[in-house]
Design goal:
Oligomer: single chain
Strand order of the largest sheet: 1-2-5-24-28-31-35-39-42-45-49-53-56-59
Distance between the termini: 41 Å
Radius of gyration: 27 Å
Amino acid sequence: MIGILTLTFVAANTAFYVAPDGSDEWSGTRPTPNRSRTDGPFATLGRAIDAIRQLKAQGGGKLDRPVTVFIRGGNYFLDEPLTFTPDDSGTKECPITFKNYKGERPVISGGRPITGWKEVVVEGKRLWAAEIPEVREGKWFFRQLWIDGERKLRARSPNKGYLSVAGPLDVTPQSPWYEGQKRFLFHRGDMRSWPTASSGEVVVMNRWVESRLPIVGIDEGECVASFSKRSVFKLDPGDLYYVEHVFELLDEPGEWYLDRKDGILYYMPMPGEDIRKIEAIAPRIPYLIRMIGDPGAGRYVENLIFQGLTFSHTEWYPEEGFRASWPSPDVGGFSQAAFGVPGAVFGEGVRDCAFEGCTFSHIGNYAIELSRGCRNNRISGCEIFDLGAGGIKIGETTIRDMEGEQTFGNLISDSHIHDGGLIFHSAVGIWIGQSYNNIISHNHIHDFYYTGISIGWTWGYGRSLAYGNVVEYNHIHHIGVKSDGDGPILSDMGGIYTLGIQPGTVIRFNIFHDIAGYRYGGWGIYFDEGSTNIVAEYNIVYRTTHGGFHQHYGKENIVRNNVFAYGRDQQIQRSRPEPHRSFVFEGNIVYWKEGNLFGGNLSDFNFSFDRNIYWKEGGGEIGFAGLSLEQWKGKGMDVNSLIADPMFIDPERGDFRIKKGSPAIALGFKPIDIRGIGPRKKARR
């Protein structure tokens, strides 16, 4: 009888409430408990989802009005992800919205509080310790810890900065670059045969990826470190690395170590921390939300809206026995962009859903992934930070033939995506795989070790679905090198990076700056293998280590009306000659004070340069790929271009507005209006 009465009452209402002081035995239709505590909000999100299912069942599987679940402030610790199927969908007229109660901050957490701390002294170290039986029993292990909302580091060496590989082992001059090793030589004194070394990992950076290598042995005499996994690519002398999660390295406040055998978490407290008051949270699950449709059968999860929510405390790590697809099964990482790391919010077969004004923080993987068959979804006004991997993944590495299984038409706008790649260093801010007609606009992306935005997953001129993507009005900076000066540690990256044939893809009205590669390849706009039919216009690119623009190889790209300034080694680079036109470079301003104008191989003249302004601070002769300007013009290049000061207002401070009377205006350069770049305030909720 109670159930029937509840259903009758609910049917007349469009709102449910969830609160930490609620009860799943109540109706969920009140924002606070009543005086007698016989009714009030639900206690869990799972119960609210069940209530909506019940409401839909009463209406024959449909809703006759929108439904909103208001979530009160507090932590909601999940034992398993919230899962939505096509049967949980709303409609365009009657969407289902999960949102924060006005002025409050609900946190949907995949973690668990760690309590029961005690002060201990172990091997002369004054530490805090907490017993965790599930760890001792082999039911739980974690690699992240947050205390009072701050990510703490596993015990590591060096505490700051990096060590370097002395030399690879088990290689020959014929060894291919993509064949990794399970051993390397270290410099004497950099590693020890620590008693707990077998619980640790060496994280080594090589080319454009990191490899996480579990330690199986350290031979101090021979200076050899051995691992159970293979590095992703062949190691080189000078590759950077660090050692983490060895108890003997627990030597700096804020570091921690988890003893798997005894189930004890050790933490070296920061000055001023109170053992009685700290909030310590460790992650338990990799996913917070899973939206699982069946796009092959035409069944989608639709019209779900998430507003003003915070998603936190997840962790993903390759399971025991994980086998990679390339370059070899036993490697300790991924071949590019940490693409195999999933999103804490994962969608497959999702249409017309939205995340608006949400926060994704303290995440151990990518924050959001919209995979197979996801279309017309919106991610707007969100802040995404403190990320083990990257920000957002759209699409797949697989090319789908059925349109219903293809991912396209999604919007990522007005979001702040920063401080990522903290575990999987090669992860990127926004990754677009085999996916088309997406819009990435008005975002602020910074502080990643690898790339800001990556589009495409076809190397060369084969079939690609990464076309028609629009990247506009974004501010992207401190890629490779972080704002605090850490890095660079990886190579071959860009503020934006592209692959494959992409007709209709446009990169416009963006600012890219402070991009740095370790050995090579810190570029602003980077057209890598096969990049074709892409337009880059009205962008400002400055302070890069290896150039504002680089095309490895590709064809018929257009680069026009951009500012490229302050490249360290060179300004513009084209690497591979091919028997077709690589790109058109026209109407740009190139401005620098060190390094060369051009890099790479421009010997075949299968490209077009014209109407550009070139200026080197301090004067001096300018070489055009080994030619004088007159010889360069004799090859048909830059016939209408000038060597002249473009008259920027304050280029040293990043102000590339041009003064009245600039020769660039007379040459047809159109001033770049940067006022709309970055997130718009009205988009934040």
